[in-house]
């Protein structure tokens, strides 16, 4: 209870209200003391009026008037003449004199606090202005014991009233906080707990409904997070199922391609010039397909296998990609070209580099054909002392904003309709395996350019 939000509000409210009441208590006590003294001055003045009406008062009547006024003697100054109107013997000498005619608030508060701290019964002189201008001043002497007792009684009543007000206020605030804040917060917590039991169930996503602005913003943020998490979990589940299916398909496809590889060995011995020229490309394509199936099986288990680094000529790899894409483009008005130095060698996994370049060129070809306009694709390469650079440029329509935002994310970075976005994700992972990087150089209405960077490291090629 006390550790809850509403419980702490209850305690803090009680404490703060009590502090506020204490700040009110001090000037209230000072005001009460002042009124107490003024009241005795008024009583003393009324008692002195009886003497003015009849100069012949016996001692018993005078004593009764002083007791009713609560004073020992009364001095009234009229017409610059100081007259002792009523008097009775005082039990002890006067200890202090207080003039109420010019007392400031701070002085009154100080005198009141000092009176509360003094437990001794003293005799004090009090000076004030007579009522209805019945003289220049009136002066009385009185005991402080009854004054202190009355101040304590008044203070206790004030403190009891303050305690009642603070508790009542705290209870009201407790109920208000519980209704306006604690219950909605607990509702959010309950939503989170129910969602945690089955985060893939979209029906458990919170629907914002809080009336408090800050709490509603929290609910909206929670809804956005839960929606994204549910989507990610569903996608993860689909990826797991897809990975299992792809692994099975790749296993069977690898066996089929291995059989096809045996048939191509016989085709190579054909005397037909066209067959003799195309057979090696067919063999290379089937070999790459077999390797792709094997690497897909590895990818389905964990990630792309580490590259097998060898020294390879870059030009033949790019030529194979260009030739394959020309066949895929058919009669479409698409120009494919390469600008690779004939003697350029790279230290990399040739099969993985082929896959990366093929993915990028294939994406460019599909984008240009989808636009319905003629286009060009060029693959070029350069190098410096630290790395090799391979640039793939096209004159296609450019990448849409959504594709740019999730460019290398599987199933989110697809550009063409129906595309999965796996090509770029796999390509980026293959390049990272070489210690390099795949970056989008630029994109726009005039085309797109990607750059592959393969570091040289400390290796010197011969």
From TrEMBL:
UniProt keyword annotation of 4Fe-4S present: no
E.C. number: 2.7.13.3
Protein origin, superkingdom: Bacteria
Keyword entries, A-Z: ATP-binding, Coiled coil, Kinase, Membrane, Nucleotide-binding, Phosphoprotein, Transferase, Transmembrane, Transmembrane helix, Two-component regulatory system
Signal sequence interval, chain numbering: none
Keyword match ATP-binding: yes
GO molecular function, one term: phosphorelay sensor kinase activity
InterPro entries: HATPase_C_sf, HATPase_dom, His_kinase_dom, HisK_dim/P_dom, HisK_dim/P_sf, Sig_transdc_His_kin-like_C
Coiled coil: 215-242
Residue ranges occupied by any Histidine kinase domain in the UniProt entry: 248-458
PROSITE patterns: HIS_KIN
Record-linked Pfam families: HATPase_c, HisKA
Catalytic reactions on record: ATP + protein L-histidine = ADP + protein N-phospho-L-histidine
Transmembrane segments: 6-26, 158-177
Official protein name in the record: histidine kinase
Organism: Ascidiaceihabitans donghaensis
Gene name in the database record: envZ_2
